[in-house]
Amino acid sequence: MTALHRLQAELGAIVSVDPGDLAAARIDKSGWQAFGMPLALVAATSALQVQTTLRIASEFGVPVVTRGAGTGLAGGACGTDGSIVLSLAGMNRILEIRPQDELAVVEPGVINQDLNDALAPHGLWFAPDPASKAISTIGGNIATNAGGLLCAKYGVTREAVLALTVVLADGSLLEMGHRSVKGVTGYDLTALFTGSEGTLGVIVGATVRTPARPTGAVSTIGAVFADVASAAAASASITAARLRPAVMELLDPSALRAIAGYLGPDNMAGLPLGHGAFLLLQTDGPLARVEAEAALRILREAGGDAELSTDRESGEQLLAIRRAMHPALAAQGEVLIEDVSVPRSRMAEMFEEIARISERTGVTIPTVAHAGDGNLHPNFVIPFDPDKAADAPLVPEHIWAAADELFRAALALGGTLTGEHGVGVLKQRWLIDELGETSFGLQRQLKAVFDPQGILNPGVMFAAAK
Amino acid sequence: MTALHRLQAELGAIVSVDPGDLAAARIDKSGWQAFGMPLALVAATSALQVQTTLRIASEFGVPVVTRGAGTGLAGGACGTDGSIVLSLAGMNRILEIRPQDELAVVEPGVINQDLNDALAPHGLWFAPDPASKAISTIGGNIATNAGGLLCAKYGVTREAVLALTVVLADGSLLEMGHRSVKGVTGYDLTALFTGSEGTLGVIVGATVRTPARPTGAVSTIGAVFADVASAAAASASITAARLRPAVMELLDPSALRAIAGYLGPDNMAGLPLGHGAFLLLQTDGPLARVEAEAALRILREAGGDAELSTDRESGEQLLAIRRAMHPALAAQGEVLIEDVSVPRSRMAEMFEEIARISERTGVTIPTVAHAGDGNLHPNFVIPFDPDKAADAPLVPEHIWAAADELFRAALALGGTLTGEHGVGVLKQRWLIDELGETSFGLQRQLKAVFDPQGILNPGVMFAAAK
């Protein structure tokens, strides 16, 4: 009996071998497409089905690629040749909301925004806010330790996870973490699994923190600077003044040009956006207005052409500029969204490096940064080519060469390859450069403790065969 | 050549075999005293010396107990028979403070308060605030993932650690984490080492977050309730109103009686403290006064006899009541400070369980809780006994029996054995009850990845031989 037969015999209709289903399971939002074809797609709706799947996979030594909504940007959940793709999108129940304890218990397939909608009547929220929050799952957020726009003020996903229920490679169930706010019994496996990209186990349940949602109206500031260096310096001054806006985004001139072209001049909130760099701030909570006024003074002193908006509508118009970044680039071609992070004080230098790499390679690299935390998203746009061969790589070698320079520059500035997207398949070849050989070797051994056969998402994070 | 000769030959004067030094290295602030006598005390002042020590320890298979200021409360850093005690108290340099990046780089022996004093002129702080902060080291705070009074608002130590430099059992150096705010490259080893109690490696350097220190005057509220149940209900109402005081401490009647006896009635801030339970709140930041007034209304509605103080002096008087808890108990005997944590909503039930256990066993258990996060410290007082045999155990069996009931009650309420002190030696026998066999086994395997010979703090967290 083959693994497929066993899956079908034990799990029935939730096992699909439909070519359309399998093809769709090979891609994520990075545009990456895994080679070959998965063996099957298992659409689990219970932890028991996940356990059965893993037990069979272990028995037959078949790789398992766990998948939520497929919104990843690093190729970390793309069904590889001969693998079982285990979709948890159907495990989407909110099991418990406990306002007294400011926590919720969810299945992994719950959409981030759906949890937030359910929490809103209680005055609570789940703070992690990846740009994909309307479509990405909590399980995926946890598996990648997702960031977002609000992290400098509200933390990353790791800080929001109290406990996990996980299915291990052999199908056994493992509970980790605690429902209490504090707990230090044993090693912090919950943190170890957060960001482990499907390589240690399959998250089938999560207890997450749901603290008080900030109240009151937000204030929003849009500021135009002559160049990216002065915008970066201004954002550093905001941090130095110990202000902590909820959002602080920096768009470089090439990003701005793309957006202006896409939205049209009438939708640029009246800002002189044909040139220069754009800094977008949003303050929230009871002191939103006071903080925004303090920020406004600093931005103007730093040479910014800055406007404060306290009404919802014009604030939304400013945010719409930032949100148009990806659609504007996607209209021009395939987009490889990079994700380096550097210490805040090195952000201006990183922008300089990007400009230098762009000039040297002739590749334009429109960049947006979460300026509050030094996380930059340099974008590589690969123009659509109707004559492109079907088996041509998504990202041409000269783009990878530019990306390679960019990663090395980030590391040299004391930064990291990936601030929030994860290593996935796309950055695996640089992993050892950041970790060093000792850490790389130890991390592979840690994986082997949980997954001795190496069936969980092989090829993700670490190279498949070593 | 013996291990001791090699240590002396390679490290010279930093190796002590003075019986006084060795005896002092056997105890911590829990009162626990390890059996037998350590082989040597190595007072390292550099990472290189730590590497040398570990290399020799590995070669000879000698256990290493790493120690900071010895302020632990779980017997986790007590020099065991024949071990090398590796003191990092002398590695106490603050290497770097980077206000732009809101981070500091420190050696592990830096005292928590000393770092905070150095950060104050920059308007920054290191938020973890164990009660021992005036005397405990950052390395020890990290090794135990220390909590404190402010955690519900400002997080535990794990949230404050960006990167670590660690010496592994074989003497090799390992860097983990990042200087950037975000970073998701590989597994989160930094979180794994935080709270690992010296069992995975020796922390020789830490890069910690130093965010903006809250500004302005604090407001303090003292409130007396008829009983602990109504005080716990009132604290739940504060949380339910989405207020987040920096401090919210709850003292039960038996704790209050001990403190009143110790301080005398004139030092009880004019509060009717012969009976009932005491709730102490402190709000901070720019909205301190507004939040305190909202809290005051809630506490009074909940039946509390509550007073708000906004001047520093009377606020200090209220805090002094809380601070007198340990000295008041220590005046009566040896104190075993327990440390269970439960979901906030179960705190009142946990107090009931403690009362029940106290009644059944005839042992009084004065208890204070960090009520904002559900972390309770039930205290067992063992009266001084001049006739006690020198080799009698610190904690008599009937006290352990009561503690055993207490731990099981906490676990049954969805809580944990230890909220912030760690497992150490004292709670090791309950570890498997909380973790379960699967997790227990996996955690031992994780340790083996970093410490294959099992020389790092054997007997701490896990039982020594298994």
TrEMBL record, chains A, B:
Essential cofactor(s): FAD
Location of the FAD-binding PCMH-type domain: 34-213
SUPFAM superfamilies for this protein: FAD-binding/transporter-associated domain-like, FAD-linked oxidases, C-terminal domain
Pfam families: FAD-oxidase_C, FAD_binding_4
Family matches, as InterPro entries: FAD-bd_oxidored_4_C (IPR004113), FAD-bd_PCMH (IPR016166), FAD-bd_PCMH-like_sf (IPR036318), FAD-bd_PCMH_sub2 (IPR016169), FAD-linked_Oxase-like_C (IPR016164), FAD-linked_OxidoTrans_Type4 (IPR051914), Oxid_FAD_bind_N (IPR006094), Vanillyl_alc_oxidase_C-sub2 (IPR016171)
Keyword set, alphabetical order: FAD, Flavoprotein, Oxidoreductase
Name the UniProt record assigns to this protein: FAD-linked oxidase C-terminal domain-containing protein
Lineage start: Bacteria, Bacillati, Actinomycetota, Actinomycetes, Micrococcales
